[in-house]
Amino acid sequence: MSVRHFWLRNAVGSTVDLMSRSLFLYKPTGLGYTRSMTFQRVSEGFFATSLNRLGQSAMAGEIVFAGSDPYSEYAELMDWIATAGSLQLGYSPSGDSENTFWAAAQIDAVAKAERTVGSGVLRVPVSVRLTGLWSRITPIVAEIAPTASPLTYPQTYPRVYGTAIAGSYSFTAGGHEPAAFGVTCEGALTNPVLSLIRDDTSTTIGVMALTATVASGATLVYSSVPLSDGVWVQSSAGTLTDMVSSLDLTKNNFFRAPVGIPCTITLSADDTISTTATLSIYEFFVSV
User: Are residues 240 and 158 in contact, defined by beta-carbon separation less than 8 angstroms?
Assistant: First the structure.
């Protein structure tokens, strides 16, 4: 029988297994979700929803320290958490590491107790607030390869295009909430444009139009993931330069794809794109 599994991961990717023999999470609760909802009566027995917002999830449980020296193990975990920076909670409903979901999290309460008489284990109640939705351990990764001819746009943008060679990728996002994106593409790029179009209506959901040059050897980095959204140019030495000030802020620059709707994401520029961009699609789930 499969057993669900939990992990903690810090900002540099180091993980703590919360289901080991000497340290394990016991009786976790709060893995579902809540919504704040209000209703307006429209007729006898009929009500229209006037507010429907997803609430913040909070998981509670006990971390049981069952090793030979539980107090030292507790202190070691507290030191790791204190220096972890950002935290993510990992959860696999089936116990399979390949079927793992991660959510940004903060530990907001730890109630240290004393060792249990008889068993000698240390049971520590904890509370974990999720600060983001669940997403898979790895996003859906695809390529945006440049095409052999210029792309014709059905929309009009406030930009004069040269002989741009563009690439696109069509997909349908899964999950429970709109999907976000990460895109990286090596230069050289002049005034790169990233756009998302809904296929069934040919309407533009969002456009990231950057007025800047990404030099050869540098990399364009884009993210629309909430709490880590932005656009940067990464130098060959790894230095990131924030490029938000070079965006057209009247546009929906950090767009997300609706669930279940076929869409196409396109990368273009004022000059020829000679490299293939890497696209990451992050699907989000309210509960898994």
Answer: no
Query: Which residue is associated with the tokens 């109630």?
Result: 111
The whole-model pTM stands at 0.83
Distance (Å, rounded) from C-alpha 162 to C-alpha 182?
Answer: 26
* One pLDDT digit (tens) per residue for the chain, 288 residues: 457 899 999 888 889 999 988 899 999 999 898 889 999 999 988 899 988 888 889 999 999 998 888 889 999 999 999 888 889 999 998 877 778 899 999 999 999 877 765 567 899 999 999 999 999 867 788 888 776 544 444 444 333 333 344 688 999 999 999 999 999 999 889 999 999 999 999 999 999 999 999 999 999 999 999 988 999 999 999 999 999 999 999 999 999 999 999 999 999 998 878 888 999 999 999 998
Q: What is the CA radius of gyration of the chain?
A: 23
Residue 261, amino acid? I
Q: Is residue 243 within 8 Å of 234, Cβ to Cβ?
A: no
